[in-house]
Design a protein that fits this description.
Elements (H helix, E strand, L loop, with lengths): L3 E6 L5 E9 L2 E9 L2 E3 L3 H9 L7 H11 L3 E3 L3 H10 L3
Antiparallel strand pairs: 1-2, 2-3, 4-5
């Protein structure tokens, strides 16, 4: 498994980082970290798990769905920010 690291500084000054592995055009491994908060606090593993097995085109819908289904409040990045960063892992 080849894991790639990506980091982006969001407009409001927060850092968003991922470690990602893609196999057969699907996310095989994903870890998200950086200067942000998610509430409830156990939401991050749920977000990461929701993206495992997803293709590039499925990511944004999966992000929006888990945020809505789990009533996740994100402070420090937007769903668009994480989607854009994840897309880098598919290159």
């Amino acid at each position: 498994m080849q894991i790639k690291d990506f980091t982006v500084k969001i407009i409001n000054g927060k850092l968003l980082k991922i470690k990602i592995s893609v196999k057969n055009e699907k996310i095989e491994y994903l870890q998200i970290f950086g200067d942000f908060f998610l509430y409830p606090e156990d939401s991050l593993p749920k977000l990461e798990k929701a993206l495992i097995g997803k293709s590039k085109d499925e990511c944004f819908i999966a992000i929006q769905k888990i945020i809505k289904d789990e009533n996740i409040n994100i402070i420090g990045f937007s769903p668009e920010d994480i989607n854009k960063l994840i897309h880098g892992g598919f290159k």
